[in-house]
Design a protein that fits this description.
366 residues, 4-stranded mixed beta sheet, mainly alpha
Length: 366
Protein backbone atom coordinates (compact mmCIF):
# COMPACT_ATOMS: atom_id res chain seq x y z
CA UNK A 1 0.00 0.00 0.00
CA UNK A 2 1.18 3.55 -0.74
CA UNK A 3 2.90 5.73 1.84
CA UNK A 4 0.68 8.18 3.70
CA UNK A 5 1.69 11.84 3.77
CA UNK A 6 1.22 13.43 7.20
CA UNK A 7 0.66 17.12 7.84
CA UNK A 8 -0.91 19.21 10.57
CA UNK A 9 -2.65 22.52 11.01
CA UNK A 10 -0.74 23.08 14.25
CA UNK A 11 2.74 24.61 14.41
CA UNK A 12 3.75 22.85 17.63
CA UNK A 13 7.03 20.92 17.55
CA UNK A 14 6.24 18.75 20.57
CA UNK A 15 3.59 16.08 20.94
CA UNK A 16 0.76 18.07 22.43
CA UNK A 17 -2.56 16.39 23.05
CA UNK A 18 -5.55 18.68 22.99
CA UNK A 19 -7.77 18.77 26.06
CA UNK A 20 -10.69 18.72 23.64
CA UNK A 21 -9.53 15.32 22.40
CA UNK A 22 -9.27 13.99 25.99
CA UNK A 23 -12.60 15.43 27.09
CA UNK A 24 -14.78 14.89 24.04
CA UNK A 25 -13.19 12.50 21.54
CA UNK A 26 -11.36 9.93 23.64
CA UNK A 27 -14.21 8.74 25.95
CA UNK A 28 -16.30 7.59 22.99
CA UNK A 29 -13.49 5.93 21.03
CA UNK A 30 -12.16 2.42 21.03
CA UNK A 31 -8.83 2.09 22.83
CA UNK A 32 -7.06 0.67 19.78
CA UNK A 33 -8.21 3.64 17.72
CA UNK A 34 -6.93 6.06 20.36
CA UNK A 35 -3.48 4.44 20.25
CA UNK A 36 -3.26 4.85 16.49
CA UNK A 37 -4.29 8.52 16.72
CA UNK A 38 -1.70 9.24 19.41
CA UNK A 39 1.05 7.47 17.51
CA UNK A 40 0.32 9.39 14.31
CA UNK A 41 0.21 12.61 16.29
CA UNK A 42 3.62 11.79 17.76
CA UNK A 43 5.00 11.07 14.25
CA UNK A 44 3.84 14.36 12.77
CA UNK A 45 5.01 16.29 15.83
CA UNK A 46 8.46 14.76 15.31
CA UNK A 47 8.48 15.95 11.69
CA UNK A 48 7.97 12.42 10.35
CA UNK A 49 5.98 13.14 7.22
CA UNK A 50 5.43 9.66 5.78
CA UNK A 51 4.28 6.35 7.17
CA UNK A 52 2.47 3.33 5.73
CA UNK A 53 -0.62 1.48 6.84
CA UNK A 54 1.39 -1.76 6.90
CA UNK A 55 3.97 -0.17 9.22
CA UNK A 56 1.20 0.92 11.58
CA UNK A 57 -0.32 -2.57 11.48
CA UNK A 58 3.04 -4.16 12.31
CA UNK A 59 3.74 -1.71 15.12
CA UNK A 60 0.41 -2.34 16.84
CA UNK A 61 0.17 -6.03 15.88
CA UNK A 62 -3.07 -5.42 14.02
CA UNK A 63 -4.31 -6.05 10.50
CA UNK A 64 -4.19 -3.34 7.87
CA UNK A 65 -8.00 -3.42 7.80
CA UNK A 66 -8.03 -2.58 11.53
CA UNK A 67 -5.79 0.43 10.93
CA UNK A 68 -7.94 1.66 8.05
CA UNK A 69 -11.06 1.33 10.20
CA UNK A 70 -9.40 3.46 12.86
CA UNK A 71 -8.45 6.13 10.32
CA UNK A 72 -11.95 6.21 8.88
CA UNK A 73 -13.39 6.47 12.39
CA UNK A 74 -11.27 9.52 13.23
CA UNK A 75 -12.03 11.06 9.83
CA UNK A 76 -15.76 10.72 10.42
CA UNK A 77 -15.37 12.00 13.97
CA UNK A 78 -13.64 15.14 12.66
CA UNK A 79 -10.30 14.55 14.36
CA UNK A 80 -8.45 14.06 11.06
CA UNK A 81 -9.11 14.53 7.36
CA UNK A 82 -8.24 11.72 4.96
CA UNK A 83 -6.99 12.39 1.45
CA UNK A 84 -7.65 9.72 -1.15
CA UNK A 85 -5.59 8.90 -4.23
CA UNK A 86 -6.74 9.82 -7.72
CA UNK A 87 -8.75 6.63 -8.11
CA UNK A 88 -10.31 7.01 -4.69
CA UNK A 89 -9.34 3.48 -3.72
CA UNK A 90 -6.55 4.15 -1.20
CA UNK A 91 -5.77 6.67 1.51
CA UNK A 92 -2.86 8.85 0.48
CA UNK A 93 -2.75 11.50 3.19
CA UNK A 94 -3.82 12.42 6.70
CA UNK A 95 -4.33 15.93 8.03
CA UNK A 96 -4.78 16.53 11.76
CA UNK A 97 -7.67 18.90 12.31
CA UNK A 98 -7.80 21.80 14.73
CA UNK A 99 -9.93 20.15 17.42
CA UNK A 100 -10.94 23.48 18.90
CA UNK A 101 -13.06 24.25 15.85
CA UNK A 102 -14.13 20.65 15.42
CA UNK A 103 -15.45 20.20 18.95
CA UNK A 104 -18.75 21.90 18.27
CA UNK A 105 -20.08 19.24 15.95
CA UNK A 106 -18.00 16.19 16.78
CA UNK A 107 -20.61 14.61 19.07
CA UNK A 108 -23.14 13.95 16.33
CA UNK A 109 -20.42 12.72 13.99
CA UNK A 110 -19.13 10.18 16.49
CA UNK A 111 -22.64 9.09 17.38
CA UNK A 112 -23.28 8.22 13.75
CA UNK A 113 -20.00 6.35 13.59
CA UNK A 114 -20.83 4.10 16.56
CA UNK A 115 -23.63 1.52 16.22
CA UNK A 116 -26.33 1.87 18.86
CA UNK A 117 -27.70 -0.92 21.01
CA UNK A 118 -31.30 -1.58 20.15
CA UNK A 119 -33.76 -0.73 22.89
CA UNK A 120 -35.60 -4.03 22.63
CA UNK A 121 -32.51 -6.13 21.89
CA UNK A 122 -33.82 -6.66 18.38
CA UNK A 123 -30.66 -6.35 16.32
CA UNK A 124 -30.52 -8.27 13.02
CA UNK A 125 -30.23 -12.01 13.30
CA UNK A 126 -27.08 -13.71 12.07
CA UNK A 127 -28.73 -14.69 8.81
CA UNK A 128 -29.56 -11.03 8.16
CA UNK A 129 -25.99 -9.83 8.58
CA UNK A 130 -23.93 -9.63 5.41
CA UNK A 131 -21.03 -12.04 4.99
CA UNK A 132 -18.67 -9.09 5.30
CA UNK A 133 -19.86 -8.23 8.83
CA UNK A 134 -19.45 -4.52 8.32
CA UNK A 135 -19.96 -3.74 12.03
CA UNK A 136 -16.59 -3.91 13.72
CA UNK A 137 -16.69 -5.91 16.97
CA UNK A 138 -13.94 -3.87 18.64
CA UNK A 139 -15.47 -0.46 17.95
CA UNK A 140 -19.16 -1.18 18.24
CA UNK A 141 -19.87 -0.31 21.85
CA UNK A 142 -19.04 2.65 24.07
CA UNK A 143 -18.43 2.28 27.83
CA UNK A 144 -21.89 3.73 28.46
CA UNK A 145 -23.51 1.19 26.17
CA UNK A 146 -21.64 -1.63 27.88
CA UNK A 147 -22.78 -0.29 31.25
CA UNK A 148 -26.36 -0.25 30.01
CA UNK A 149 -26.02 -3.83 28.83
CA UNK A 150 -24.51 -4.84 32.17
CA UNK A 151 -27.78 -3.91 33.81
CA UNK A 152 -29.01 -7.20 32.38
CA UNK A 153 -28.02 -9.92 34.83
CA UNK A 154 -27.17 -12.53 32.21
CA UNK A 155 -24.76 -10.15 30.44
CA UNK A 156 -23.16 -9.07 33.72
CA UNK A 157 -22.62 -12.72 34.70
CA UNK A 158 -21.29 -13.41 31.22
CA UNK A 159 -18.56 -10.78 31.57
CA UNK A 160 -17.55 -12.34 34.88
CA UNK A 161 -17.44 -15.85 33.38
CA UNK A 162 -15.39 -14.73 30.37
CA UNK A 163 -12.96 -12.92 32.66
CA UNK A 164 -12.53 -16.15 34.62
CA UNK A 165 -11.71 -18.12 31.49
CA UNK A 166 -9.25 -15.49 30.29
CA UNK A 167 -7.63 -15.20 33.70
CA UNK A 168 -8.26 -11.59 34.63
CA UNK A 169 -10.46 -8.53 34.49
CA UNK A 170 -11.69 -7.72 30.99
CA UNK A 171 -10.47 -4.55 29.33
CA UNK A 172 -12.99 -2.15 27.83
CA UNK A 173 -11.99 -3.43 24.40
CA UNK A 174 -12.62 -7.04 25.45
CA UNK A 175 -15.98 -6.10 26.95
CA UNK A 176 -16.88 -4.36 23.69
CA UNK A 177 -16.17 -7.57 21.80
CA UNK A 178 -18.33 -9.61 24.18
CA UNK A 179 -21.11 -7.03 23.74
CA UNK A 180 -20.79 -7.47 19.98
CA UNK A 181 -21.17 -11.25 20.24
CA UNK A 182 -24.13 -10.85 22.59
CA UNK A 183 -26.02 -7.95 21.05
CA UNK A 184 -25.11 -7.87 17.36
CA UNK A 185 -24.39 -11.52 16.57
CA UNK A 186 -27.07 -12.46 19.11
CA UNK A 187 -25.05 -15.32 20.59
CA UNK A 188 -26.58 -16.63 23.80
CA UNK A 189 -24.53 -16.33 27.01
CA UNK A 190 -24.06 -20.11 26.95
CA UNK A 191 -22.72 -20.01 23.40
CA UNK A 192 -20.33 -17.17 24.21
CA UNK A 193 -19.03 -19.04 27.26
CA UNK A 194 -18.46 -22.14 25.14
CA UNK A 195 -16.75 -20.00 22.48
CA UNK A 196 -14.28 -18.57 24.99
CA UNK A 197 -13.79 -21.94 26.70
CA UNK A 198 -13.10 -23.64 23.36
CA UNK A 199 -10.54 -21.04 22.29
CA UNK A 200 -8.89 -21.11 25.73
CA UNK A 201 -8.51 -24.90 25.61
CA UNK A 202 -6.72 -24.51 22.29
CA UNK A 203 -4.32 -22.09 23.98
CA UNK A 204 -5.74 -18.97 22.33
CA UNK A 205 -6.90 -16.36 24.83
CA UNK A 206 -6.42 -13.38 22.54
CA UNK A 207 -9.71 -11.59 21.93
CA UNK A 208 -8.65 -11.07 18.33
CA UNK A 209 -8.49 -14.86 17.84
CA UNK A 210 -11.80 -15.33 19.68
CA UNK A 211 -13.43 -12.72 17.41
CA UNK A 212 -12.30 -14.58 14.29
CA UNK A 213 -13.79 -17.83 15.57
CA UNK A 214 -17.02 -16.03 16.51
CA UNK A 215 -17.35 -14.55 13.02
CA UNK A 216 -16.68 -17.96 11.46
CA UNK A 217 -19.43 -19.48 13.60
CA UNK A 218 -21.83 -16.69 12.71
CA UNK A 219 -21.11 -17.06 9.01
CA UNK A 220 -21.88 -20.79 9.32
CA UNK A 221 -25.21 -20.10 11.02
CA UNK A 222 -24.19 -21.42 14.44
CA UNK A 223 -26.59 -20.20 17.13
CA UNK A 224 -26.44 -22.87 19.84
CA UNK A 225 -23.84 -24.76 21.85
CA UNK A 226 -24.96 -28.03 20.25
CA UNK A 227 -24.33 -26.64 16.76
CA UNK A 228 -20.96 -25.27 17.87
CA UNK A 229 -19.87 -28.63 19.28
CA UNK A 230 -20.84 -30.36 16.06
CA UNK A 231 -18.92 -27.73 14.09
CA UNK A 232 -15.73 -27.90 16.14
CA UNK A 233 -15.92 -31.69 16.02
CA UNK A 234 -14.80 -31.31 12.42
CA UNK A 235 -12.26 -28.67 13.40
CA UNK A 236 -10.85 -30.15 16.59
CA UNK A 237 -7.38 -29.66 17.99
CA UNK A 238 -6.29 -33.07 16.67
CA UNK A 239 -7.52 -32.26 13.16
CA UNK A 240 -5.74 -28.92 13.08
CA UNK A 241 -2.57 -30.50 14.49
CA UNK A 242 -2.54 -33.33 11.94
CA UNK A 243 -3.15 -30.99 9.01
CA UNK A 244 -0.43 -28.69 10.33
CA UNK A 245 2.04 -31.56 10.76
CA UNK A 246 1.37 -32.68 7.20
CA UNK A 247 1.69 -29.10 5.92
CA UNK A 248 -1.93 -29.02 4.72
CA UNK A 249 -3.00 -25.40 5.16
CA UNK A 250 -5.25 -24.65 2.21
CA UNK A 251 -8.19 -26.93 2.96
CA UNK A 252 -10.12 -28.75 5.66
CA UNK A 253 -9.80 -32.47 6.37
CA UNK A 254 -11.81 -34.70 4.05
CA UNK A 255 -14.21 -37.37 5.28
CA UNK A 256 -11.71 -40.29 4.99
CA UNK A 257 -9.06 -38.18 6.75
CA UNK A 258 -11.51 -37.28 9.52
CA UNK A 259 -12.27 -40.99 9.93
CA UNK A 260 -8.57 -41.74 10.39
CA UNK A 261 -8.19 -38.98 12.98
CA UNK A 262 -11.32 -40.14 14.79
CA UNK A 263 -9.86 -43.67 14.97
CA UNK A 264 -6.55 -42.38 16.30
CA UNK A 265 -8.22 -40.30 19.02
CA UNK A 266 -11.31 -42.37 19.90
CA UNK A 267 -10.23 -45.96 19.18
CA UNK A 268 -6.49 -45.86 19.76
CA UNK A 269 -6.99 -43.16 22.43
CA UNK A 270 -3.76 -41.38 21.49
CA UNK A 271 -3.19 -37.77 22.47
CA UNK A 272 -2.24 -35.13 19.93
CA UNK A 273 1.52 -35.33 20.63
CA UNK A 274 1.69 -39.01 19.71
CA UNK A 275 -0.41 -38.53 16.57
CA UNK A 276 1.75 -35.60 15.42
CA UNK A 277 4.90 -37.68 16.01
CA UNK A 278 3.50 -40.38 13.73
CA UNK A 279 2.74 -37.73 11.08
CA UNK A 280 6.28 -36.35 11.35
CA UNK A 281 7.76 -39.84 10.88
CA UNK A 282 5.45 -40.40 7.93
CA UNK A 283 6.81 -37.30 6.19
CA UNK A 284 10.41 -38.35 6.87
CA UNK A 285 9.73 -41.77 5.38
CA UNK A 286 7.47 -40.93 2.44
CA UNK A 287 8.21 -37.21 1.88
CA UNK A 288 4.48 -36.60 1.47
CA UNK A 289 1.32 -36.66 3.61
CA UNK A 290 -0.04 -40.18 3.97
CA UNK A 291 -2.80 -40.96 6.42
CA UNK A 292 -2.49 -44.66 5.53
CA UNK A 293 1.20 -44.76 6.41
CA UNK A 294 0.63 -42.84 9.65
CA UNK A 295 -2.12 -45.30 10.52
CA UNK A 296 0.30 -48.25 10.21
CA UNK A 297 2.69 -46.52 12.63
CA UNK A 298 -0.04 -45.74 15.13
CA UNK A 299 -1.49 -49.26 14.85
CA UNK A 300 1.93 -50.71 15.68
CA UNK A 301 2.25 -48.34 18.64
CA UNK A 302 -1.21 -49.33 19.86
CA UNK A 303 -0.23 -53.00 19.73
CA UNK A 304 2.92 -52.11 21.70
CA UNK A 305 0.74 -50.43 24.36
CA UNK A 306 2.21 -46.97 23.80
CA UNK A 307 0.81 -44.41 26.23
CA UNK A 308 3.18 -41.46 25.85
CA UNK A 309 6.28 -40.20 24.06
CA UNK A 310 8.53 -42.03 26.57
CA UNK A 311 7.02 -45.32 25.43
CA UNK A 312 7.87 -44.43 21.85
CA UNK A 313 11.50 -43.84 22.87
CA UNK A 314 11.51 -47.23 24.56
CA UNK A 315 10.23 -48.90 21.40
CA UNK A 316 12.81 -47.05 19.30
CA UNK A 317 15.63 -48.30 21.56
CA UNK A 318 14.31 -51.86 21.45
CA UNK A 319 13.99 -51.68 17.68
CA UNK A 320 17.55 -50.37 17.36
CA UNK A 321 18.88 -53.15 19.56
CA UNK A 322 16.99 -55.77 17.56
CA UNK A 323 18.40 -54.32 14.35
CA UNK A 324 21.92 -54.46 15.80
CA UNK A 325 21.41 -58.05 16.95
CA UNK A 326 20.07 -59.03 13.54
CA UNK A 327 23.00 -57.31 11.87
CA UNK A 328 25.50 -59.06 14.14
CA UNK A 329 23.81 -62.40 13.47
CA UNK A 330 23.97 -61.86 9.72
CA UNK A 331 27.65 -61.01 9.96
CA UNK A 332 28.34 -64.14 12.00
CA UNK A 333 26.34 -66.30 9.59
CA UNK A 334 28.28 -64.87 6.68
CA UNK A 335 31.61 -65.46 8.42
CA UNK A 336 30.70 -69.08 9.11
CA UNK A 337 29.66 -69.55 5.51
CA UNK A 338 32.95 -68.12 4.29
CA UNK A 339 34.92 -70.41 6.61
CA UNK A 340 32.95 -73.45 5.51
CA UNK A 341 33.38 -72.69 1.83
CA UNK A 342 37.17 -71.96 2.05
CA UNK A 343 39.07 -73.73 -0.81
CA UNK A 344 41.57 -75.25 1.62
CA UNK A 345 38.81 -76.74 3.68
CA UNK A 346 37.17 -78.06 0.52
CA UNK A 347 40.30 -79.99 -0.47
CA UNK A 348 39.81 -83.77 0.06
CA UNK A 349 42.44 -84.80 2.62
CA UNK A 350 44.28 -88.09 2.12
CA UNK A 351 43.59 -90.78 4.66
CA UNK A 352 46.91 -92.69 4.12
CA UNK A 353 48.94 -93.46 7.24
CA UNK A 354 52.47 -92.02 6.75
CA UNK A 355 54.13 -94.61 9.00
CA UNK A 356 52.55 -97.51 7.11
CA UNK A 357 53.59 -95.96 3.79
CA UNK A 358 57.17 -95.63 5.00
CA UNK A 359 57.28 -99.26 6.10
CA UNK A 360 55.93 -100.36 2.75
CA UNK A 361 58.59 -98.43 0.90
CA UNK A 362 61.37 -99.99 2.98
CA UNK A 363 59.98 -103.45 2.36
CA UNK A 364 59.85 -102.87 -1.35
CA UNK A 365 63.42 -101.62 -1.43
CA UNK A 366 64.58 -104.63 0.52
Amino acid sequence: MNKLTLCTQSSNTSTTLSNVFIDEFMPLANGEFVKIYLYLLRCVSDSQTTISVSALADFFNQTEADVIRALRYWDKAGAIMLTMNSSGSDISGITFCDLTSASGNQTSEISSAVPKISENHKTPAVSEISSGFTKEPRSAYTPKQITDLSAQEDFSMLLYAVGTYLGGTLSSSDASSIAYFYDTLQFSPELIEYLVEYCSLLGHKSMRYIEKVALAWAENGISSVKQAKAYVGNHSEATYSVLGAFGITNRAAGKPEQDYIKKWTDVYCFDTQIIVEACNRTLRATHQPSFEYADTILKRWKEADVKNLSDIKRIDIEFEQNQQNKSAKRIQTYANAVKTNNRFNNFSQRSTDIDSLESALISNNG
